[in-house]
Batch of 4 targets.
Target 1
Amino acid sequence: MAWRDAVAPFWDFTIRSENISEFRGQSNVRHLGNAILCSARVSGLRFERKPALIARMGVDHILAHVRISGQSRVEIDGREHACAPGDVCLFDLSRPLAARSTDYQAITVVLPRPLFGANQCDLDSFHGAIIRGTTPFGLLLTDHLRSLNVHAAGFSEPEARAAAEATAVLLGAAVRGLSGDDRIDDAAERPPLLLAMRRFIETELASPHLTADQLCRQFGVSRSALYRLFAPLDGVAGYIRQRRLARAYRELAATGDDRFSRISEVAYRWHFGSPARFAQAFRAEYGRSPRDVRAQVLADDRAARAAASAPSSRSETWTDFYDWILRLTA
């Protein structure tokens, strides 16, 4: 199915077998310079972002999704909320999620996290939040996203960037005003310090000196304060291990180079002590071994080479969409 192949890099999705022949998917994607806008009309399905897919993409953008028609139920950490027409859902693309939906029409905007400025820390604790379309501010947001979708084609480049920045301002304001009933992520409000620490960890993942002690010294906090900050993220060591596994996954899944690093080299580069310990942690995180990932990449690469001279059945728009997502910056 062409639509399945087009969105596979971004979503894992399933369709009930009895509905496959009736499935339809149509989308239009537009780049706004510092955001990506997509309008879609799709048959009912279940979609999710699993840890392996998140690691492969390696982005932490914010996605806002407004339902024009159709119902869905969003599941995060075992909890579900309903999303109805007019509701705006917020997702952090660096974290897992799942949803099931009826036939629907929707408008989606993807924004890089830095575009939200000081509101980035608010977004960290609102993954899966729903801004209800029945509220005054929800109505304003829905009208804004509908208008953005209608008029974006006529924007100049500076106008498109300004429109994306205005969207981030509105979403940030909406997030700060949400009640607990509309949050799926129940973690306590995370301070800007945690965001700064996460950015520091990301730049230092390859360093053998990245430890809880280094973070305490770097940010002037006690061990107990550090542990409290990272408690919702599986602890300091758990968070660092998860981020290193994500980097290792991306390295194993990389294409475009005929010479791959040995799996043992990847294990030692990301400080797992031994290939066996790396393989054990990798399988626990992603449900498959490093060798499985490497074998799949090689198989996909051979298939792509074989199809290179044939007319593509994949939408150029969706190809661009995936590339835009990977390169999107504020």
Note: Residues 122 and 176 are 7 Å apart (CA to CA).
Target 2
Amino acid sequence: MEKQLKVTLESSVNGTTQRQRGTVSALGLHKRGSSHVLPDGPEIRGMLRVVQHMVKVEELHSQRKELSQHENR
């Protein structure tokens, strides 16, 4: 089971530093209220730490069903 994070931009990027605006953009967020599902990993967690006061993070547990060769036919 692969963990994923749903990240939602809760506040505007107005008045933030260039680093924070770049991080928000790299996370795939564009305007207030936009969301993006990302894989959980240390790189993403580090980016979220930079903008933790601006985003809401929810952990999702994707349950991908692995199909055997017989089910694919």
Note: The chain has one domain: 2-65.
Target 3
Amino acid sequence: MGCSGCSTGRGTNNLPGGCKNNGGCDSGGCNKLNVFDWLSNMNNPSMADKPDWVEVRFKNGRKAYFDNIDKLTLSVGDVVAVESSPGHDIGTVSLIGELVRIQVQKKSVKTNEILKIYRKARQGDIDKWQDAMRMEKSTMTQARKHAIELGLDMKICDVEYQGDKTKATFYYTAEQRVDFRELIKIYASQFKLRIEMRQIGARQEASKLGGVGSCGRELCCSSWLTDFRSVTTSAARYQQLSLNPQKLAGQCGKLKCCLNYELDSYLDAVKDFPSSNINLKTEEEEFFHFKTDIFKGIYWYICKQDRLKFVSVPVKRVKEVQELNEKGEFPEHLIQEKENPKIEKEIDYLNVVGQDDLTRFDKLNKKKKRPKNKRNLKNKQPSNFKIDSQKNTSKKTTSNKNNRLINNSNQKDQGEKPSRQNPKKKFKRTKGKNQNTDMKANKSSKEGQ
């Protein structure tokens, strides 16, 4: 959307910002409503005597069809001067060949109304055309000011100058009919041009201005969509969408055109579905419809007795229960409990070693243990003392064990119970008491003296 035939992306010198081809690439470049000519390499000999029609693109994707009477050698991207009323207009060739005939038949264009191509645009024609495009923004701001001053309930969304600067077309949107006769007089006296007012809808406005949709892509109407079909809320209901106007509306404020894209597939899937307005009854409970999953073929029901009980029922089972209820029969359960037979797995291959494991080459990052802090050597005693002390303690422990065994044996012979000695003795602190007694003794001696 940055080439010379588009309103957006025009900078200094009217050069495109993206592909840097000055709007002359063979495929149409980044222009709006670009078309791929899939019949470009095919010649139809039966159409040799038929007129040579060419599709020409103007501002904002506006296209028209012209007759190449002089048999000019044209290619996609050529700038041509075409017939207009009055004068002539400048446009870019967007499509040639056999595909143009198909487009004329598809859009039901009257062949008597097809105008002709004059010539390829000269440098003087291109300079005048570029000057006219630079005047469009300033003209639109002034036109909006005059419309606000007159108090007209309308919005001027775009202005398009003709290539020879003899006519300007003002596109506007309005909810009601507007009397703009005085406005045209002001425009004609100020701009000194032939003025044409053309009312468009909200979707046509969005296609001219362009933008990005909620899907994150460029708007369909500004990139490839040419016909605007009516969209109703029933399309959202068939697709089980919540009727939230903020989510269903597009940039134009109307329902999104993409709601019609998948509607046919949803309608085909819903043909064999039973009615969801009929409640399902069992011996003890009654269920009403909550929502539908069309492509999985599942109905979701809620129990009337217990509103927190949601049950998913296949479409086939829903038909069976409805037929039973019509006959006056009520099943015991809404869903049939299937017996799941135990299937013994045949042992075919065991991955004992783990050679088929995808993570067999991954190594766990084990954290290295930090060495413990070394103690100060000053507090350590000499090694000789340690050895001697260990020997002494070992001798003492062995002697104590022997003495205990002897005492226990003597007590058993005498019929007495062996006394249990606690290895760890608890010592009471007597330091504070001794100090208190010494203080009392000193006081009494002093008093005696």
Note: The longest strand covers residues 88-96.
Target 4
Amino acid sequence: MVITVELVARINYLARKERYEGLTDEEKNEQQKVRRQYLDGIRQQIVDAMEGAGYTKKHDTQCECPDCKPRYDS
């Protein structure tokens, strides 16, 4: 997911509208969608940066090691 100027502008517009006028149910759903897109984009940038620096992913949600398992079960 790429974070575009248009995506940030839409997030900001909906935030201002929510603050001053309120949002319709459709706009609330859109707001959640665009915020999720933004956060997914940030997360992907972090993963790309870490991989570019030579770090590799060692664990995931299916990991059964004693260090990870308690975090995913709670």
Note: The mean pLDDT is 85.
